Amino acid sequence: MWANVYVCVSVIGSEPSTTTTQALTTTGNGIATPSPTQPEMITDCNKFYFVKSGDTCASIASANNLSQTQFRNYNPSVGTDCKGLWLDAYVCVGRIGTTPTPTTTMQTTTTKAGNGVTTPTPTQDGMVTNCNKFHFVSTTTTCQSILDTYKITLAQFTKWNPGAGSGCNSLWGNTYACVGVIS
User: Fold this and answer.
1) Is the peptide bond before 39 cis (omega within 30 degrees of 0)?
2) Separation of CA 60 from chain center
3) pLDDT tens digit string along 26-37?
4) Which of 136, 47, 141 lies closest to 100, judged by CA?
5) Count of CB atoms within 10 A of residue 98's CB?
6) Which DSSP category does 37 fall into?
7) Ramachandran sector of residue 122 (left: φ over 0; alpha: ψ -120 to 50; beta: rest)
8) Average pLDDT of 152-171?
9) Could you read off the pLDDT of 41-75 as tens digits, one per residue?
10) Which residue of 1, 38, 79, 165 shows the fewest CB atoms closer than 10 Å?
11) 76 φ, ψ to 5°?
12) What is the pTM of this model?
């Protein structure tokens, strides 16, 4: 486009028309898939969620009784840190032939790992097995508050709790996180 030049954008007597439609694509599995969708979404998806401002991989997974691992498997382009999550697009939150697995429970139990340490549950998705120190993450806990309390680095925390994401933007509330490991 040139500067200081007039351009015709309409003809006298015509009215611009706008049409908004939501496209549905029916795949070979018979499921109508809304669009736009998250890139690389699995093809056998049968339940969809429209991503809105403020949503995170963890919040979407939790609201749909999925683990973060399941959510990432259904939507691989979101990445382990959830930075690839598209706003205003549909993501997969259900798969043909699967039943969602509840991700959290308010009942706390403990298990004794092979390392002799009693591990409280539920835990962050993918937490390391050599953890010996735990912190209960409330829904208002931030990664920074955990790092400050236990004097650990973000790199250590995300190595021990990979489900929290490399930038710690997928930290789950109402679970236990690892804040120390057996050397």
Assistant:
1) no
2) 6
3) 445 567 778 888
4) 47
5) 13
6) B
7) beta
8) 89
9) 888 888 899 999 888 888 888 888 888 888 999 99
10) 1
11) -60, -25
12) 0.44
Strands (E), 63-150: 90-95, 109-112, 118-121, 131-137
Instruction: Name the residue among 50, 55, 47 with its Cα closest to residue 93.
Output: 47
Encoded tokens for 103: 């991700």
Q: Which residue has the tokens 């955990």?
A: 146
Eight-class DSSP state of 178: E
Beta strands in 35-183 (DSSP E): 45-50, 90-95, 109-112, 118-121, 131-137, 175-181
Return the amino acid letter for 32. A
Please report the domains of the chain, with CATH numbers, ordered by start residue. 24-95 (3.10.350.10), 109-181 (no CATH)
* Residues 64 and 93: beta-carbon distance below 8 Å: yes
Contact assessment for residue 112 and residue 146, using Cβ atoms and an 8 Å cutoff: no
Q: Tokens standing for 37? A: 């969708």
3 state DSSP class of 24:
strand
Neighbours of 76 (CB within 10 A): 14
